[in-house]
Amino acid sequence: MKNLLLTKGFFPESLLRPTINYILQNQLPNGCIPWFKEGKADPWDHIEAAMGLSVGGELKAAERAYLWLAAEQLEDGSWWANYLDHQPVDKNHRETNFIAYIATGVWHHYLISRDSDFLQKMFPVVQKAIEFVLRYQSPTGEIYWAVAEDGSAKKDALVTACSSIYKSLQCAILCAQELNADYAGWLKAYQKLGNTLRHHPECFDRTWESKERFSMDWFYPVLAGVVQAKAAQERIESRWQIFVENNVGCRCVSDEPWVTVAESCELTLALLAAGEHAKAVSLFSWLHQFLDEDGGYWTGYNFRDKVIWPREKTTWTAGVILLAADALTSHTAASTLFVAHAQHSEWLQQIEA
């Protein structure tokens, strides 16, 4: 298909309705949204797909997705990293950014639905999840990336994961503000994490090779609001030629000829957050060549070999297509969630030095 150039006020409903339906068709009766039929589910990608349902107006289906998470939440507030056939796959692996992301999903759904009963019902789930994650914030501010079954931390941190947690903390605080609940401890953790992400790169990738070759380490601090304004534009410009393949999309890693639709959509959101609207419109317009006839989008494409790889269409890819389309067209009340970060700058004044 030809490139699709989206503008404010013109959400492509007819094009994206099959994509919304693709997520619905893969959602299980219990509300879980696996990657694809008979595939695994993980909390972060499940939420990404649920947010796509909210954008698509499928509010009841999205709510069922969040209620599945509520039902599966462990007593300590966490979730296992992966589920298959209603059972956890690996009990030695709980990722903190997966767990925190419930706050982002719940706030996103509330912005669209304005369902105060939903927010009240889900806030205890958010509280338990955030409190679990913050137990693993180090004295220097970063949050350890994973937790073993016995509760011990896997003591290193990732820029991408911590940026995602930073955004989730912001959303948790907004949930608490809406309900007049206490958030002082969360605000302090948010400030500390942001300070570490901005000023202390030595706190990340301490025990393994640097993840700088991954595009998400490049743009996630912009997507999450860690880096804003001119600094965000400079960060985007610094590695644009390395990661972006013209008329195809954003590479997953700098040294492989492989783009993914999901990371290209997330970069679209980061570009909007940085004020790079024209680049965002252009990048997103390239992605619809990967739309399949059933409404799903192929996960990735090897542009050197000119082949779709892997041969799968994930629900979370469909979800972030919808999030990016929403942000570009201002379709829902949540359209600015990932692109308007300056409004929370006053939260940082108490700690930045």
How is the secondary structure organized here?
Elements: H1 13-26, H2 43-55, H3 59-72, E1 83-84, E2 87-88, E3 94-95, H4 96-113, H5 116-134, E4 146-147, E5 153-154, H6 159-178, H7 184-199, H8 215-223, H9 229-243, E6 244-245, E7 249-250, E8 258-260, H10 261-273, H11 277-285, E9 300-302, E10 307-308, H12 315-329
Antiparallel strand pairs: 1-2, 3-4, 4-5, 6-7, 8-9, 9-10
Describe the main β-sheet briefly. 3 strands, antiparallel
Give the DSSP E fraction (strand runs of 2 or more residues): 5-15%
Class by SSE composition: mainly alpha
Radius of gyration: 19 Å
Q: What is the third-level CATH name, the topology?
A: Glycosyltransferase
The DSSP helix count reads: 12
Identify the CATH class. Mainly Alpha
By DSSP, the count of extended strands is 10
Query: Which shape, going by the Cα principal axes?
Result: globular
Name given to the CATH architecture: Alpha/alpha barrel
Strand order of the largest sheet: 3-4-5
Task: Tell me what you see in this structure.
The longest helix is centred in the middle third of the chain and has 20 residues, at 159-178. This protein has helices at residues 13-26, 43-55, 59-72, 96-113, 116-134, 159-178, 184-199, 215-223, 229-243, 261-273, 277-285, 315-329, and strands at residues 83-84, 87-88, 94-95, 146-147, 153-154, 244-245, 249-250, 258-260, 300-302, 307-308. It is built from twelve helices and ten strands. The mean pLDDT is 96. It is mainly α and 353 residues long.
